[in-house]
Amino acid sequence: MSDRSIEPGATGTHPTRWLMTHYGPYQAGLDAAGRPQLAPDPADPAPTPLGLALAEVDHRLRIRRPAARSTWLAAVEAGRDPEGTGRGEAPFVELPWDEALDLAAAELARIHRDHGPTAIYGGSYGWGSAGWFHRARAQLHRLLAAAGGFTMGVGTYSHGAAERMIPHVLGLDFAAAGAAAPDWDEIAATTDILLSFGGIPLRNTQLDWGGIPGHRVGAALERALDRGLDMVTVAPMADDAAAAGRARWLRIRPGTDVALILALLHVLVSEGLIDRPALDRLTHGWPVLEAHILGRDGTPPKTPAWAAGITGIADAAITALARRLAGRRAVIAMAWGVQRHQNGEMAVWAAHALAAALGQIGLPGGGVGIGYGAGGGFGLPQTGRRPGLIGALPNPNGMEVPVSRFADILLAPGATIDHDGRRITAPDIRLVWWAGGNPFHHHQDLNRLIRAWAVPRTIIVQDMVWTQAARRADLVLPATGPLERADIAGGLQGPTIIAADALVPPVAEARDDHAILAAIADRLGCRSAFDDGLDAEAWLARLWDRARSGTDDLPDLAGLRAAGRIDPPPLPDAVRTRAGRLARFRADPAADPLPTPSGRIELASDRIAAMGLPGHPCWQPPAEWAGSDLTARFPLHLLSPQPATRLHGQLDHAAPSLAAKHDGRERVMLHPEDAAARGIADGDCVMIWNDRGACLAAARLSTDIMPGVAALPTGAWYDPSPTLKDAAGRPVCRHGNPNLLTRDAGSSPIAQAPAAQTCLVDIRRVDPATAAAERPSPYEGPMFADRDTVTTASPDTGPAA
């Protein structure tokens, strides 16, 4: 068992400087022909090859010049209100920068004037750059706020349910709770048992948002296991430790984790194994939850036998696991995928309840962590330092909606959305502006998104490459990548901070996001509000000064650039307040209470009950799971985990991702029993379908997944077939994008977060002739037309003949 890695120096380059990426630090240089080359950090114990593809800056998918959809441009030039028809079909017309910037500024001003600020949606959901300044989302949101306001998506597709649930339970925000969780050094040294819901897949630890100092999770887990850590993985798929035989694997039906946790609590309560003094001192609402567990509230007792029928785990195994937990230093870990189910908030709440009942919260090497194995940064020791990221501007005239309800607001303006105790009225969106990111990767139910994408009058996308979002936009602005601009990065997930100058000039006519948006701010007369009139160099100096504030051990910007990379030591313990937050609460709850209504860990919540929801952790059967009637038509539960060979959809066209595909398609993992029942062999082309859509994939047979479950990694670029249709006449994705199949429905009224893992499908073998005729072709740019083919005389129906 080890992290995926490559040998340092594998590129054969002669590095000249450092570059921080989401995949960790690399040394960057130019080869003899002047082409960028990257090499991993020689000190990284398990460097990943994924970031090496960033060196291919001049890829054929790069957006080289500003471009407008021909039919949209014709409507604008004719003075008509443009329409969304023709997106993804009509050709593009390349434009000079000044004209493109004029069009963008004029359209933003027009929508503000005619429809108000909430009619503008500032997208840009996605990881983008690892830098402090060149953060596409932050830059765009600053412009839209400075220009008068906009509708903003809040929350994440990654851990949206946990983001909203943890403040109800601990009073801490998601990041603060993660910082207060036991770090990997503590786990390696002191933890007796690690109970992991969803597992700790090391493929995810190859990267983290903003960059990581090195890949050390695998080594820390090995140290813990070598010391005798008792690790239990509860998941439908085996993680690395379970696959290597170093963890016990309990196969659980997807989406049923809460039922298992309640049964574990039933055993602990019934056998007198809970830490009642800790519950009395540190928690609020335990008697309410205990009554529910024991069935004293009119519901069935949550016995192991009750849970066995839901989870598929034998009642004796549940009882044995509860006894193994009792009286030991325990960490309850939960992968983000577990809370990406319908009612995923309850799983997060239940995990905290289990840790509290065991008396573990606030102890060294004990407690709960929502995100171990979700990224390479979660669980790294805290440094006490804060990076100088460029921040947001106030948006008083705008509004906020849950980010995963994007299609909802486009399709049903005026409808209401309940969100964490407030009721939102969906705005009437006329302009969508996306800078970085690709909703055709991360949003659920792509056929529904396609309908929603046709609603706005104008869609502007600024990006590096021709993603499906860019190909379906009206105005496209080419942006630079990390090797084409100077920035500071790091310090988010560990001590390493890197200052990198541009290694190569921008490709073709690409500009960095700040330069694009500053030029538009100039046209709108809001430049001062947008960036104080400062250029990128002045902003880097400002951000570094902020990061140095209050310390005396960091060099000035010139010194940082001269060094290229610094790894400053952690600040003194007195300053590292976040890591010890729960320990201080445990030591003296009266003197250092949590910022919850009770000042303690809330195991029952009047606030949540007031939303018309259960006021304590409880099992709620989801719409799609192994126990639902829908299994008569769709008997397989589809999971869409993160891939091992790319970051979400980023670099799907690069060598590591391509090498993992079969005949150019994403591979879907199936248990051999499910494959045999359908006449499917390893490598066969298969169709995966349900009522929402269909896609093709290549079968991969494995006993590392339980029967009745399939897993298709997320991130394969959407590639609609022009000829193959599903039962409803919609294009089948030839490449294997699971979001043709996932549900676009909120987790619950608490978070309204994605619930992509609540998804039933069926799978069948595709005959070889059809498979051969439907070769994937996901990495194609759009068609272009000459400017003189654009007509202004006819409606927005396509280019002139």
UniProtKB/TrEMBL annotation:
<comment type="similarity">
    <text>Belongs to the prokaryotic molybdopterin-containing oxidoreductase family.</text>
</comment>
<keyword id="KW-0479">Metal-binding</keyword>
<protein>
    <submittedName>
        <fullName>Biotin sulfoxide reductase</fullName>
    </submittedName>
</protein>
<dbReference type="GO" id="GO:0043546">
    <property type="term" value="F:molybdopterin cofactor binding"/>
</dbReference>
<dbReference type="InterPro" id="IPR009010">
    <property type="entry name" value="Asp_de-COase-like_dom_sf"/>
</dbReference>
<dbReference type="Pfam" id="PF01568">
    <property type="entry name" value="Molydop_binding"/>
</dbReference>
<dbReference type="GO" id="GO:0016491">
    <property type="term" value="F:oxidoreductase activity"/>
</dbReference>
<feature type="domain" description="Molybdopterin dinucleotide-binding">
    <location>
        <begin position="636"/>
        <end position="759"/>
    </location>
</feature>
<keyword id="KW-0500">Molybdenum</keyword>
<feature type="domain" description="Molybdopterin oxidoreductase">
    <location>
        <begin position="62"/>
        <end position="523"/>
    </location>
</feature>
<dbReference type="InterPro" id="IPR006656">
    <property type="entry name" value="Mopterin_OxRdtase"/>
</dbReference>
<dbReference type="GO" id="GO:0030151">
    <property type="term" value="F:molybdenum ion binding"/>
</dbReference>
<dbReference type="GO" id="GO:0009061">
    <property type="term" value="P:anaerobic respiration"/>
</dbReference>
<keyword id="KW-0560">Oxidoreductase</keyword>
<dbReference type="GO" id="GO:0009055">
    <property type="term" value="F:electron transfer activity"/>
</dbReference>
<dbReference type="Pfam" id="PF00384">
    <property type="entry name" value="Molybdopterin"/>
</dbReference>
<dbReference type="InterPro" id="IPR006655">
    <property type="entry name" value="Mopterin_OxRdtase_prok_CS"/>
</dbReference>
<dbReference type="InterPro" id="IPR006657">
    <property type="entry name" value="MoPterin_dinucl-bd_dom"/>
</dbReference>
<dbReference type="GO" id="GO:0030288">
    <property type="term" value="C:outer membrane-bounded periplasmic space"/>
</dbReference>
<dbReference type="InterPro" id="IPR050612">
    <property type="entry name" value="Prok_Mopterin_Oxidored"/>
</dbReference>
<dbReference type="InterPro" id="IPR041954">
    <property type="entry name" value="CT_DMSOR/BSOR/TMAOR"/>
</dbReference>
<feature type="region of interest" description="Disordered">
    <location>
        <begin position="770"/>
        <end position="801"/>
    </location>
</feature>
